[in-house]
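Render this sequence as a predicted structure.
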Amino acid sequence: MDPICVRVTRGNVVEATHLVHAVAVEGGAVVAEHGDAHLVCHFRSSAKPFQALELVRACPDLSEEELAIACASHQAEQPQLATVGLLLERAGAIPGQLENGPQAGRAPEPLLHNCSGKHAGMLAACVARGWPTEDYRLAGHPLQRAILRDIAALTGAPEEEIDLAVDGCAAPTYALPLERMAYAFSRLESTPEGARVAAAMRARPGLVGGAGADDTALMEARPGWVAKRGAEGLFCAVEPGGLAIAVKAQDGGNRAVRPAVALLLAELGRPVDSFRQVERRNSRGEAVGTIELAE
C-alpha cells in the first residue's frame, strides 16, 4: 500500500506534500499499514517510555509526576520544570549535572532542554543503583547497557542488531524498523515496570508533552491511550488493549503527523476528528491554510 500523503496549503495553493509511513500492530501481528512498515529509522524520543523502565526498578517509590516527566519531551512549562526538579532532588543532583546540554531555541540552561526529565531520571537511577553519575549518557555506561537490554526485549530485536547512534540530547538512540517500534508499544504493559510507566503517562498527559503537543493532544482526545512523539516526524501510541501504532513522516516533517494518525486510527475504528485537519496560522494568528490528507 502507498504511503499516506499529507498536503500543506496556503490559500488555494498546495505548498508542500509529505509522505508518511504507518503501521498498526495488535497481538504480535500487523493489522494495518501504509507505505513501508519495515522502514528503519531512529526511535528518538518515542523510546522514552522504555528508557524509563530501569528508573522504575531502581526507584520503586516514584510518583506519577516524576515518572511522566522522565518520559517527556517537555516544553519548559512551569509545572514540567518543577517536576524535573523533583527528580534532581531525588538524585541529590543539580541542573549542571544534566548531560543533555543546551537546546537550540531555548535559554542555554540544561534544565530547559526538552529531554531534561529523561536525563534527571537517568541520574536518579544511577544514584539508586550505585553507578557512576558522570558519563551516564554514554553507550558503555551500566545504565545505558540496561536500557538497551529493555529495548531489545520489548522490540524483539537482538541487541547486536540494533544500530546505536547519538540522539539530539547526547544519549543513545536506536535504529529499528517501524513495525518493531509499534510492536514494542503493544507490549509496553507486559511488565510491571511498563504498566507503571503507562499509568503515569495516562494520568499526567500534560507533563509528557505540553499544551498543543501531539502526544498530549492524542492522550486527551482518546483517554486511556499512551502516546509519545519523537523527532523527525515519528509518533507512537498504544491503547490499553495493546493495539499500537507507529507513524513516520518520510521527510521528517512533524507537521504531517496528525492527519496521518487520524487516517490510520479511523481505519482502525478509533477516530480522532481533531487530528484530521490542522490550521496554519501566521504571526498575527490569522488562518492562512491547512495541513490535511491529500484527496
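Summary. The chain has a mean pLDDT of 97. DSSP finds eleven helices and eleven strands in the chain.
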